[in-house]
Amino acid sequence: MTTTPPARPVPEALAGLPGFTRDPAELERVRTDRSGYVPPTRPAGLVRARTVEDVVRTLRAAHEHRVPVVPRGAGTGLAAGASAREGEIVLDLHRMNRILRIDPVEQIAVVEPGVLNADLNAAAAEHGLFYAPDPASTSICSVGGNIATNAGGMRCAKYGVTREAVLALTVVLADGRVLTTGAGTVKAVTGYDLKALFTGSEGTLGVVVEAVLRLRPAPVATATVAAWFRDVGSAAAAASAVIAARATPSVLELVDGPTLGAIDLATGSAHRSRGEAFLLAQTDGFGAELERDVVLRAIEPFAESVLVADDPAEAEALVQARRSAIPSLEALGRVSIGDVGVPRHRLAEMVTGLRRIAEETGVEICTVAHAADGNLHPMIVVDRDEPITEGPPKLALGRMFELARSLGGTLTGEHGVGLLKQDWFTAEVGELSREVQHRIKQALDPHGILNPGKAV
Amino acid sequence: MTTTPPARPVPEALAGLPGFTRDPAELERVRTDRSGYVPPTRPAGLVRARTVEDVVRTLRAAHEHRVPVVPRGAGTGLAAGASAREGEIVLDLHRMNRILRIDPVEQIAVVEPGVLNADLNAAAAEHGLFYAPDPASTSICSVGGNIATNAGGMRCAKYGVTREAVLALTVVLADGRVLTTGAGTVKAVTGYDLKALFTGSEGTLGVVVEAVLRLRPAPVATATVAAWFRDVGSAAAAASAVIAARATPSVLELVDGPTLGAIDLATGSAHRSRGEAFLLAQTDGFGAELERDVVLRAIEPFAESVLVADDPAEAEALVQARRSAIPSLEALGRVSIGDVGVPRHRLAEMVTGLRRIAEETGVEICTVAHAADGNLHPMIVVDRDEPITEGPPKLALGRMFELARSLGGTLTGEHGVGLLKQDWFTAEVGELSREVQHRIKQALDPHGILNPGKAV
């Protein structure tokens, strides 16, 4: 249904659009994302959209002439969901980056898709509010991309993923018609939940051009605990103990030894000298300190050393250490970032299994995890000129997915399927679900022009 | 697409099923719900399902013979979403009421659809957990019905609606095939979010036969404030002030004067002597008392009197007063329960407008509201033998929806569209959204046998 047609000239209806370009440097830029995967070919062209009308005209022409379109935000995706190939046109939305409105009383923001996650958070902070989904890439990723992948981050075990923050969407459908779905109210159940269907659909059902997002009151207080462990299994067990103690930390991040080593190398810190795994926990709200004590008591039996970071600067440095994990690894080579999820009490089995996979395949795997929701990012690090989609890295990736599934988990918690995880998609969702998803795709995009070959 | 076919004999493939009956008393019971609407005809038959296989056989036969099927839970719906007419077969799921598993470490419950909301909460409480969606009808409504309507309740401004609690669903599709969607993990984004699509689809896309639901840690403390006001506008303004103060109450319920009068009459309380409107606020968690003080300071300037209910029994009595609103009104006549939503800062305009509609149409309207999410239940009370779907009640209902929409709101926050709100559906969602929803319906239920004429 969604195979790429052979190369052919770009129809004038598209090539004549004001934002259209074939500039080779631009095409080189937009053919890939941060997944580490570079497609063998370059796209046929690029439309730099600045207005909803630009998107409408692009899709109307693409629909009429059956030209595949790859919507693109900030290009920070980790599953090659925005990678583009020969015959495809990239629809670049990153210049549609205005915050149209923040309503501090209603606690909502109305934004264009190219707004950066961190910029939205900075604007919300001026009103004592925050936007909950916070991918590690907050300073470079766009809200539109967050919606396309139903992105998560550190705070979602407590505050929910992107889907929970999306109240309404304006979406340009495959044929160029403009759909508004959802409501400006916290609750609304009139008809099917199309905004939830579009959220996480990786640009295959429509192009989001405006979103009404829920903001939340900034917590009045935050408390921070850090702990170092003999091994990663102990850290995972401590994280599970925090959940079993019925605390609801806003942050519960696990970092393994190899990743700590990379962070130390890149930032001059000395985490790995304190242990082979690190856990960062934050509680927030009116009872932040009381809840921190519950977390502390749960962690202590498993840890080598524990630090209560009362000083905000010290706490911020610990958060930054965690945030620097991916850039630190990227300084060492090409990184393929996994995104598996497991039930929270299977975390220790998963991290131990990842060690085994690393040994057996000879591939280096460094792991960080959003431990409070069982979402792990095992990162495969290879030399810069080594491919990640074949040989031992691909073998390790497949073993990783199989292990997550055998523990009752999923192959992607928050990054999406994109192009890179297609091989394992049906094994996870099953033939019938695949068929139903394709029927929905067919109902909304009958010519299959939207991001072909991705997601479903 | 979904018109009811003329009456004809029930095919043997259905009539021969073990749970099938034509018992007139049973058919009388299942032709209506708690909406106050009684269809003019009775359904052709009833299948009392006890197993997934019963549901599979029913739908397989119905699909083959093009017989419309009305899925039914506990029958407590308020939008005639489960009402059944001539030519339709009711698929009654209320006997599929087992809690299959509670995992206290993972904080999930696996349940059949007929489990009552309160029974699930009681089972979760044994492990120090709770199930967040809590419709006022908790003791009589089923979890399957909650999923069908994406039900809310008092606690969802803080803890989310049913959609946020549904991690995975097993659904029997229109043709009898069994689909599993979602994952046993807190986060998962593999493919389209079908579980979110099924949640709130009012039995028109499939029949939920099993659900994996997220439980949450029971709060370690709860604090309660009650306040009485000169008029309902002041109470609404106080509720908006609580939100503007950036508190996140777990409960923020508004009750107007006429409803207080009915509660007093039914329960012997004396709320109305204290004011013409009542606001009940609860905060919970480790900082419950500190947050209560923020709520208190926001409410005080608007209130005639305020009560901090430190005694748990006193707090519980106040919650019970709110919960008794609907039964108290039902003691006075036939009640049609509205479900409009407005942006939270428009609450005062909405309640004032409802007073005006009541005066102008001569219809009695009593209002309660989940004020923290702007969801109001204006209840039209008529004599027991008066219809609610024509004359002044229908006029008032239409005016109510128009008012909510003019304030940027919705016609249904948590009860669904059902049969009763069909007239206003397209005005709210728009022609294009209606078309997209019908295409999805067509993709999943090509013969239109599932709950025809409801929701979309």
TrEMBL record, chains A, B:
Gene3D superfamilies: 3.30.465.10, 3.30.70.2740, Vanillyl-alcohol Oxidase, Chain A, domain 4. Transmembrane segments: none annotated. Residues 39-218 form the FAD-binding PCMH-type domain. Its cofactor is FAD. Keywords: FAD, Flavoprotein, Oxidoreductase. InterPro entries: FAD-bd_oxidored_4_C, FAD-bd_PCMH, FAD-bd_PCMH-like_sf, FAD-bd_PCMH_sub2, FAD-linked_Oxase-like_C, FAD-linked_OxidoTrans_Type4, Oxid_FAD_bind_N, Vanillyl_alc_oxidase_C-sub2. The keyword Cytoplasm does not apply. This is FAD-linked oxidase.
